[in-house]
C-alpha cells in the first residue's frame, strides 16, 4: 500500500494499525521514501490476522492492497492461496450449480467476490467460495453486490475451519442467508445447515457415496462421489 507522507503525518495512528497487516510504503514527492513493515513474532501463524480495527480502516486496508481479506466482528483475516484440492472441489460444485441454474432467476458465483453482511448493526465483509444470489437487482452500476445470498458454500482448510464452522455459521444465520454448506475435504463430508429466523432450523451431514439435496432449491442435488473423487 503506497501512502503520501503528508497523509501518514496527519493519520499516523491509523497507518500504524494498518502496518500490522502489510507493508506501508510512504511516498514523498511521488517517490518511495520509507517502508513500514509489520513485525512478525517467531513461530506466529500469520495466515489469520485477528486484530480489532474499524470498518472504515478495513476498507482503507483492502482497497489499497493486492491481498485478499475478510472482516468479521471487527477482526481481519488474510485469505491464503488455496490448495489444488480446494479449487477442484469448488470447480465440481460450481459446475453442477451452473448447469442446474441455467435459465433460472438465481445465479451461482465463485470467489473472489465481496459480500457485505450486517450483524447487529455491524458491517462484515466476506468472500465465500461459492454463493447463489437471487436478488441480482442488488448489484450496483460498478458490479458490487449489496444483497444477501440465498445459499453459501465454504470449503474448509486447516487454517479456516474454526472461522467457517463457527464465526461464519453465526454470521450467515444472523444476516439472513437461508442455506449454508460446509465442505470438509479431510473427512469427505458436507454439512448442510438450513437457516431461518436467525437460527439453525435443520442440520444434516452427507458422507460416503450419498447425494446432497438442497433444502431451498428442490432438485439441486450434488453427488459426493463427484465432489471428492480426485
Explain what this protein looks like in three dimensions.
With 230 residues, the protein is an alpha+beta fold. It folds into two domains: 2-78, no CATH class; 84-228, Alpha-Beta Complex (tt1808, chain A). The protein contains six helices and 15 strands. Strand 12 and strand 13 (199-207) form a beta hairpin. Residues 39-47 have low confidence and may be disordered.
Write the topology of this structure.
Layout lengths: L1 E3 H6 L1 H7 L5 E5 L2 E6 L18 H9 L5 E4 L2 E4 L5 H18 L5 E4 L4 E5 L2 E5 L3 E4 L17 E5 L5 H15 L3 E6 L4 E8 L2 E9 L3 E3 L7 E3 H5 L2
Parallel strand pairs: 1-2, 10-11
Antiparallel strand pairs: 2-3, 4-5, 6-9, 7-8, 9-10, 11-12, 12-13, 14-15
For this entry, give a set of tags.
six-stranded mixed β-sheet, globular, three-stranded mixed β-sheet, 2 domains, 26% helix, alpha+beta, 15 strands, tt1808, chain A, 230 residues
Q: C-alpha Rg, in Å?
A: 20 Å
* Largest sheet descriptor: 6 strands, mixed
Strands in their spatial order, largest beta sheet: 6-9-10-11-12-13
How many helices?
A: 6
Beta strand count:
15
CATH class categorisation of the largest domain? Alpha Beta
State the end-to-end distance: 39 Å
Strand fraction band?
25-35%
In short:
By secondary structure, this protein is of the alpha+beta class. The protein is built from six helices and 15 strands.
Amino acid at each position: 500500500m503506497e501512502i503520501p507522507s503528508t497523509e501518514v503525518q496527519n493519520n499516523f495512528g491509523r497507518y500504524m494499525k494498518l502496518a500490522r497487516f502489510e507493508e506501508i510504503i510512504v511516498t514523498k514527492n511521488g517517490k518511495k521514501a520509507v517502508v513500514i513493515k509489520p513485525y512478525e513474532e517467531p513461530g506466529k501463524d500469520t495466515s489469520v490476522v485477528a486484530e480489532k480495527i474499524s470498518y472504515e480502516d478495513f476498507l482503507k486496508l483492502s482497497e489499497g492492497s493486492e491481498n485478499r481479506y475478510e472482516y468479521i466482528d471487527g477482526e481481519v483475516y488474510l485469505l491464503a492461496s488455496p490448495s489444488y484440492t480446494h479449487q477442484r472441489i469448488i470447480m465440481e460444485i460450481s459446475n453442477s450449480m451452473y448447469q442446474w441454474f441455467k435459465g433460472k432467476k438465481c445465479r451461482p458465483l465463485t470467489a473472489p467476490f465481496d459480500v457485505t453482511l450486517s450483524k447487529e448493526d455491524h458491517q462484515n465483509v466476506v468472500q465465500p467460495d461459492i454463493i447463489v444470489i437471487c436478488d441480482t437487482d442488488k448489484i450496483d452500476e460498478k458490479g458490487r453486490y449489496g444483497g444477501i445470498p440465498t445459499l453459501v458454500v465454504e470449503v474448509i482448510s486447516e487454517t479456516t475451519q474454526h472461522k467457517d464452522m463457527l464465526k461464519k455459521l453465526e454470521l450467515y444465520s444472523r444476516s439472513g442467508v437461508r442455506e449454508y454448506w460446509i465442505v470438509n475435504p479431510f473427512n469427505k463430508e458436507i454439512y448442510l445447515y438450513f437457516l431461518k429466523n436467525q437460527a439453525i432450523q435443520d442440520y444434516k451431514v452427507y458422507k460416503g457415496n450419498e447425494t446432497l439435496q438442497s433444502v431451498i432449491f428442490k432438485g439441486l442435488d450434488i453427488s459426493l462421489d463427484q465432489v471428492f473423487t480426485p
